[in-house]
Amino acid sequence: MSLALQFFIASGVGLLAAMLLVGLWVTSQIRDGVMRNSAATTALYVDSVIAPLLPDMRKSRELSDTVKRALDETLGQGALGKRLVSFKLWRRDGMILYADDAELIGKTFPPNHNLISAFAGNVMAEYNDLDDDPEAGEEKTVNAPLFEIYNPVREPWSGEVVAVSEFYEIADDFQETLNAALWSTWLVVAGATAAALALLSGIVFRGSRTIETQRTALEAKVTELQSALSQNSSLRQRVQRASRRATAINERYLRRIGADLHDGPAQLVALAALRMDSPLLLDPAASSELREAEISGIHKTLGEAMREIRGICNGLVLPQIETQAVVDILTLAVKEHERRTSSKVALTLPGRLPELGTSEKISIYRFVQEGLNNAWRHGKGKDQAVRAGMKGGRLMVEVMDGGPGFDPSRSEGLGLAGLRERIESIGGQFETLSGPQGTRLVITLSVEEQP
């Protein structure tokens, strides 16, 4: 369960228990208060009716027949007679001085706590509780709620309690008043509890939703971060492998350059040096025509050596491409190839390509340069073409020819291997497609435009 649901259940149980405790305490206080007020009101009314009929209870320990008949007439008629079920007048020693049941007059019973408290000057009341009254016989047979009241009878001039009147009142109105008060109290307590629970639960549920939303977002961020870390680890491993391969390929490049210089310009320069020791140049007797021919041959050999050296340098030195756009770089590479080989290349470019970084520009230039060189050497320059465009938010550059092709799985020359390592080291993809109809080299680069 969520924290909010756990709080709702726990707080609901706690508030329900608190509501029951508070409700029971409040209702008990209301019940006692209503009973005291009703008892005081009824006792005052009864006392005002019977007090004038009673003699001086300090002098008369018993009631005369005249007083008893007056009480019988008063308590058996009128509004008071309709309200009272029974009436008793107690003496302090527990003897009944008067009762509407004549058989009880003169009998003595052990005083209960209500009677003792009434002789102490307190108005006592009980509602539907006749178990402590051994003298209550007729009252127990009444099929109605009864309100039992003990009222102290005081001496007018001294205020001393000289007797206690006990009477039972039919409590229909009291029952309705008490039930209405209790229902109102329980409704108020329950409403306050429900409002508190709703307010607290609303705050907690709102906080829980915020926490859940933040947790979901955090989990998504963690998942994204883990994916990024995994990608970074994979890219780092690829870069490390590419770096190792690039080191080996650079060494091979250096060896190839050294071999090209040794087998080409160095041989020509060595030949020119040998011809410098020719007898035609050292012998004064040699004819001028032969000497000039020898010198012309040496010049020709040295010129060939210089041309080969320039060709090697042209392949190694890059033009100024850092500040040029990608379209201009592709155009420059194609034009250089056309100038060097006196061949034609079909160039297809869109109106605009995104701006890239220096590493990407160098890689694109070298890719087109090496691809066209391979198309010239191995594809005889047939149907040479360069094409660039955007696809799925990535830059694609293709170099194609219509030569005989080769098997990429068996043979990938030093130039293509170097290009693959260069492209993959910057996060791109390199693909070689070759067959009898020709060869197609494709690179794909992620586009992150530079400012």
TrEMBL record:
Residues passing through the membrane, by range: 7-26, 183-205
GO molecular function annotations of the record: kinase activity
EC number: 2.7.13.3
Xref: CDD domains: HATPase_UhpB-NarQ-NarX-like (cd16917)
Recorded coiled-coil stretches: 225-252
Catalysed conversion reaction: ATP + protein L-histidine = ADP + protein N-phospho-L-histidine
Domain Histidine kinase/HSP90-like ATPase residue range list: 359-449
Keyword Glycoprotein: no
Alphabetized InterPro entries for the sequence: HATPase_C_sf, HATPase_dom, Sensor_HK_TwoCompSys
Name this polypeptide is given: histidine kinase
Taxonomic lineage: Bacteria, Pseudomonadati, Pseudomonadota, Alphaproteobacteria, Hyphomicrobiales
